[in-house]
Each structure stands twice: as structure tokens, then as C-alpha cells.
Amino acid sequence: MATLKQDTANTSRGSRLPEHGPIAENGREILLSLKDVDITFGKGEDAVRAVQHASFDIYKGETFSLVGESGSGKTTVGRAVIRVNPLANGEIQYKGVRISGKIPHALDREVIRNIQMVFQDPAASLNERATVDYIISEGLYNFHLFSNEADRVRKVEEMVAEVGLLPEHLTRYPHEFSGGQRQRIGIARAMVMEPELVVADEPISALDVSIRAQVLNLMKKFQEEKDLTYLFIAHDLSVVRFISDRIGVIYKGRIVEIAEAEELFNFPLHPYTHSLISAIPIPAPRLEKNKVLYTYDPSIHDYSTDQPELVCIGHDHFVYGNKAEIEKYQAIRDAGVPVKPITIRDPNAPEELHTQEAEADEAAEKEFLVHPTHDTGSIWYMIISFLLPILGLIAAFLFKKFHHTRNYKQCRKGAVAGFVLIGIVLAVFLLLLWRVVA
Q1: Same structural domain, 248 and 386
Q2: Of 90-94, 117-121, 390-394, where does the model show the most confidence?
Q3: Structural domain count of the chain
Q4: Cα–Cα distance, 231 to 32 (Å, whole number)
């Protein structure tokens, strides 16, 4: 995305990490860069493209947040950065060096040391059979980051104190702690490695509201003291606004908008970003009651002839759209008038207006119920279709008509297997009958 002032062609295939990353056109150092990344799970008809053509840069010392609804691909991107999810296409660079795919063992260890992750579930991400002392020390042991036992103990105790825990907690096990304390242990485990980049995968979503603020303040404190860079993954835009320097919005695996935090909230140009901001709760019951939610409908886009792409419209603001949409977004941004994503319904409006809105909501609900969402792809559909292939074909036809793709595939597989078995049995029967007659 960003234009580089130095050529990284040689370093992108290096076996060691340089001291500094490439410098972007704006003069900032690029620490992490995703270039046209595709991530696919499964093969053939069952393949799912979880991430498509994702491209963005993260500058050193900033907090870059990746936001979107559940299933949009946020965590998939984060796990790809720490080399857990392989890429189907594209590459990920750290300080200008490619770290995706097969890399030398020495480079792999450097990446593990420099990029740490704080997980969403503080209970599932900690070894229940290990003490807090061992959990935090595990990275130190694996990378020999201490000179002697006294040095290891000192580092662990200092880190425990920094995250707000006590030395006596080191001998306890994760199940003896609250959710907020477990997350502090997870943060300590990551920070004791002295990383440069931390991937924080919804680190506060499982915590109480009061504890969330404490964990966010703790992460901000570490960033200021240790010059950390964060890839912060979240779905709560109100939290993201507080902690982020820049925000990337992802929808069904595609990056649809990237901008600085205040720029994005003042000018949410893509309709999906608009819908996310409109869903932020207003801390005033009367206003929240009369708020009009904006629902994103992807069918408003016509990409049949003019293919969309992620384009910078100025102000370091990137938006995904085709040529006509980009021109519209550009005109809105050039006008300089902040977009109003939240609309409050006038409680004193005529009763007829409220009636019309209620009827529209009821019609939308009926339309939704016409197409049930129980597309589970249960294996029982395949078993029943195998035993009763004709019934399976009928069910497959109905499921396909109502866009139940998973159920349709299971019925089709079972019915085809059933007919194959019937064909084999029939062929064997005819062969035996022929031999008896002959």
C-alpha cells in the first residue's frame, strides 16, 4: 500500500531480521506489512476463503486495530501474522523480510521472539497444569533469555509486579484466578519476551466492563514504556476508538476501509463502516431508544462490470469500491463535512411515521423468516440421503432453492453414494442371475 523510499527486494528473502524496517512515503517505519494476502480453509467445493486480498501496513509504535463482526476474518489474519495460519496467496513481511511460508529456522525463532500474541480467552490460553511462574518463564527457557536462575526469577517477579499481580501468585495455578487476573498473566507471558509487535486478539471481550479499562490502561502503559506496536483485533468500535491510532475495517475477509481513528469516525465512507458505528450503544437511554440502526446490505453494490479495489482518497484514508463508488466517497471527503452515522428518531414525530416504520420492520422480519438460517450441514442429512437416495435428491433440491448450501451438499453426497451402492448391488444381482440362467 504505502510507497517505500528504499528497495526491499533483497531483504524480503533474508534469513535474519534487520534492525529497522523500510521507511514509508510519510517517513514512518513499516514494522509489519500484509501484501495481497489470501487465506483459505479446506479444498475443492468445501474450500472457504476466509481472507481475500488483504493489504495494509502497520507502523512502528502505533496501535493498528482490525475491526469487524464475528466471522469476518480478524482472528484469521492475526493467527497468520504469528505463522499459525498458512497463506494461500500473497505474503506477510516483518521489517521488510518475508515471514510467511517456509523460512529458515533461525528467522522463525526471531519472529517468535519479536511477535507475541495475547489471546481472547484467558482461561483456554493458559496451561491449567502449570504454575504462573512456569507459564511466564516458558519463553525465557525456550530462548535462554536469562543468565542464571536469579536473573530469571528477577525478570518474572518484575513482570508480575508490572501487570498488577503479587509475588505469591507465582506458585498458584490459572484456575485460582479471576478472568481479569488470567488476562494479566497472559499479558505478562507475552511482555516478558520483550517483543516489538503484540497481536492482541480481542483481549478484553471476555472481561467485565470495569476490568476492561484496567487491561486497556495496562496495555497503553506497556506501549509507552517499551515502544510496543499493537495489532489490536476487536469488534467493539467504542473501545477501538480509545486505543487505536489507525483502524482497518474487515468484512467477510476483505478490508473495506482503513483510516486514522478520528478520521474514520468523522468520515465513515463505506456503508459497512457506517453500520458498525451506528451500532455503538449511546449511554443515554432516551437517545438509545430512539436511535435508528443502519443495516448494511451488500446487494447495494453492483460489481458486475466495474471491479472494486482498495483506493486511497487522500488523508491516508483507504476505501474499497469500484470507480463510481470511489468518486462518490471522494466527493464526500473533499466536502469536509463530517458524516453523521447515527440518526436519532424524533420522539415527537407524527404517529403515522412510527406506524410506517413498525410496518417496515415487521415486513423485514417476515422476509427473514421465509429463509430460515439452520444451514448446519449435519452429517445426518448425508446418512438419511444415503439410505433413501430419492428422498435425498428431493431434499437437496429444496435446500438449494432456499440457499442452504451446506445441507444441500450433504444431501447430494449421501444421495449419490446411495445410488452408487444400489447400482453395484443391482449389477451383482444381474450377474448372478445371468450365471444361473446360463
Answers
A1: no
A2: 90-94
A3: 2
A4: 9
Q: What is the pLDDT of residue 373?
A: 57
For residue 40, report the phi and psi dihedrals to the nearest 5 degrees. Answer: -125, 140
The answer, yes or no, to whether residue 270 has pLDDT greater than 90, is yes
- Is the pLDDT at 310 greater than 80, yes or no? yes
Q: Which domain holds residue 181?
A: 11-267
Q: Are the C-beta atoms of residues 256 and 319 closer than 8 Å to each other?
A: yes
pLDDT at 6: 43
Has residue 204 been placed in a domain? yes
In this structure, the answer to whether residues 59 and 179 fall within a common structural domain is yes
User: Is residue 362 included in any domain, yes or no?
Assistant: no
Label the pairing between strands 63-67 and 229-234: parallel
- pTM comes to 0.75
Angle at CA of residue 315, ends 65 and 323, nearest 5°: 95
Mean pLDDT over 89-95 rounds to: 95
233-239 mean pLDDT: 86
Which of 228, 248, 267 is the last residue in one of the domains? Answer: 267
Please give, one letter per residue, the 3-state secondary structure of the chain: CCCECCCCCCHHHCCCCCCCCCEECCCCEEEEEEEEEEEEECCHHHCEEEEEEEEEEEECCCEEEEECCCCCCHHHHHHHHCCCCCCCEEEEEECCEECCCCCCHHHHHHHHHHEEEECCCCCCCCCCCCCHHHHHHHHHHHHCCCCCHHHHHHHHHHHHHHCCCCHHHHHCCHHHCCHHHHHHHHHHHHHCCCCCEEEEECCCCCCCHHHHHHHHHHHHHHHHHHCCEEEEEECCHHHHHHHCCEEEEEECCEEEEEEEHHHHHHCCCCHHHHHHHHCCCCCCHHHHHCEECCCCCHHHCCCCCCCCEEEECCCCCEEEECHHHHHHHHHHHHHCCCCCCCEECCCCCCHHHHHHHHHHHHHHHHHHHHCCCCCCCCHHHHHHHHHCHHHHHHHHHHHHHCCCHHHHHHHHHHHHHHHHHHHHHHHHHHHHHHHHHC
pLDDT tens readout for residues 401-436: 777 878 888 899 999 999 999 999 999 988 888 888
Residue where a domain stops, chosen among 243, 267, 291: 267
